Amino acid sequence: MSPEPPHSAGRHFLLRLPKGADVWEWLADFCARESVKTAAVQIIGATEEVTIGYYDQVRRDYHKRTFRQEMEILSCAGNVSLKDGKPFPHLHACMGDVELKVWGGHLFAGSKVFAAEAHVVELLGPERERLPDAATGLTLWRCPEA
Amino acid sequence: MSPEPPHSAGRHFLLRLPKGADVWEWLADFCARESVKTAAVQIIGATEEVTIGYYDQVRRDYHKRTFRQEMEILSCAGNVSLKDGKPFPHLHACMGDVELKVWGGHLFAGSKVFAAEAHVVELLGPERERLPDAATGLTLWRCPEA
Amino acid sequence: MSPEPPHSAGRHFLLRLPKGADVWEWLADFCARESVKTAAVQIIGATEEVTIGYYDQVRRDYHKRTFRQEMEILSCAGNVSLKDGKPFPHLHACMGDVELKVWGGHLFAGSKVFAAEAHVVELLGPERERLPDAATGLTLWRCPEA
Question: Between chains, do C18 and A141 touch, taking CB under 8 Å as contact?
């Protein structure tokens, strides 16, 4: 058995993001406004600007790159949980350029939506809280197995 | 508060697409047949042929490219809502080639399934209708914030 | 009408994978332990090592490649159904490298998690069983249309 009860689905939100919105900030604000503490998320659309990066597992910091060009959001998947008591999105994005080549990474604040559509599934049940994790240098949920 | 009520999950469909099917057409037909007006979708599989593209945000038209080669559907995410009164899929796809390189874009009609599996979540609640949007040249839902 | 009843959502699991876990094996074990027979899955995170590949539609075998380098799991989408009576994950992954380039394919056993977060939606209703399919050489569910 898992050491804690599972979640159940609460509200489903199917939403258009406003033109010009920052995807990360918009989602954090939306969840705060709607009191969504835990969620699963999938977003598609297009951006005029986007900031993605990867986590250097050895140096333990993020490398960011901002693409100031039109790109398709092919997939922007992840979740929302609590960090410092507030809803905190964790999203990974695949972005397509005009040659249909794909670039991807951890999504940071610093994007500008051209058009986008989000599916946010609220998860009811135990809260998930991000706490510093010594083994990775990230802020992670406590491991069910721990 | 959001200006309209959220959705709730209706039926979940976990389906195999027939060999030779066109992903976009198959999904539109399935939703029409099952009276699914609003849904969230994720598909994985492989195609013998696929048509993807991107939306030129300045010229305001789609550029399409058809790949006549075997590719993996790594992710094909999006939604179904109403356009002209009928269920209309909006899907973005990441496709993998034989070198494991990834190509991606907006999925158009014009694909041929080798094998594929879809998860379609029916969303019950307010209808989402695609209407012309002057700011982007696309057909979008009315913005919750508008 | 579809030839069989749809599914409904059961438990939602939002889980952190342990560092060092094999994604495929971890998910298969989790589902066996929790008696999850059918599910939809999305995972994001990062790996120290990952094995992906594609299915050669003509020769009818998988080509695998193991990446022994740090990569982001941008999307790892798919499902769980029964094969030989046991929960069997079918996942396709988009993986990002340190240049933010994306590689993708069918996910095999043979990965090593740095950090990862999974959303697993249990689907209640008819079982899905993987059986040999003569037309593709794969193990697939019986086609609803068949």
Answer: no
Element (H, E) at C131: strand C131-132
DSSP B134: T
Domain range annotation of chain A = 9-140
CATH fold of B9-125 reads: 60s Ribosomal Protein L30; Chain: A; (3.30.1330)
- CB contact under 8 Å between C1 and B73, yes or no, is no
Please name the helix (run of DSSP H) or strand (run of DSSP E) that holds residue A93, with its range, or none.
strand A86-96
CATH T-level assignment (fold) for domain C8-140? 60s Ribosomal Protein L30; Chain: A; (3.30.1330)
**Residue B100 and residue C52: Cβ atoms within 8 Å?**
yes
Residues of A in contact with B94 (CB under 8 A): 74-75, 94, 102
- Of C11, C34, C46, nearest to A55 by CB-CB distance is C46
Question: For the domain bounded by A9-140, which CATH number is listed?
Answer: 3.30.1330.80
Residue of B nearest to C42 (CA): B42
Distance of alpha carbon C55 from alpha carbon C53, whole angstroms: 7
For the segment C25-84, what is each residue's pLDDT rounded down to a tens digit? 999 999 999 999 999 999 999 999 999 999 999 999 999 999 999 999 999 999 999 999
- Cα gap C90→A98, rounded to integer Å: 30
ipTM for this model? 0.96
CA distance A144 to A146: 6
Closest listed residue to residue B89, CA positions, set B11, B16, B26, B7: B26
What confidence tens digit (pLDDT) does each residue in C17-39 have?
A: 999 999 999 999 999 999 999 99
Set of chain C residues whose Cβ sits within 8 Å of the Cβ of A96? none
**Helices of type H across chain B:** 23-34
- Tell me, what DSSP letter sits at residue C31? H
Where helices occur in C10-79 by DSSP H, the ranges are 23-34
Taking CB atoms and an 8 Å limit, are C75 and A77 in contact across chains?
A: yes
DSSP-assigned beta bridge partners for residue A41: A78, A120
